[in-house]
Amino acid sequence: MTAMYQSAGPPLQPSVNAGRLWAGGAATAVVAGLIAIVGILVGRGLFDVAVLAPKGEGVWGDASTFWYALGAAVLSLVATGMMHLLLVFTPRPMLFFGWVMVLGTVVAMLAPFITDNDLASRIFTAGLNLVLGVAVGSLVAGSARAAVRPAPAQSTPRPYR
Hints:
The chain has helices at residues 18-46, 63-89, 93-110, 119-147, and strands spanning 5-6, 15-16, 148-149, 158-159. The chain is mainly alpha-helical. A two-stranded antiparallel ribbon has the order 1-4. It has a two-stranded antiparallel ribbon with strand order 2-3. Helix 1 (18-46) packs antiparallel against helix 4 (119-147). The relative contact order is 0.22.
């Protein structure tokens, strides 16, 4: 005769420390904004490459430098929100997040090539977008790993009677 087992209750899920996840997302937003600013300074100042604005705008450029940095920060927060949803609602959230980040980064890298800017500008901007994608993806994923609390150990199953 085979023994049948019933569980002691519903399957236990890991929980998400939302405060920790969003603190990491906010820190990622700051880092992403700074990466964008440093990248633009390096491109324009060291390599004399027009990144986002014509070379005539100078090393700091115009308002587009601010908007690029702000956009990087906001997209970091969007990635954090997406990660939060994935952690709560999907199986294997890190796998899905990885795929979304890789594909989003590829799109961001290809976007400069639909402009009429010179090739050096397009290549440098694509490289900057790659660095931003890798940074945001790795930092948000690391914050998520630190924010997930494993499910408590389930008690041993009881024989079904």
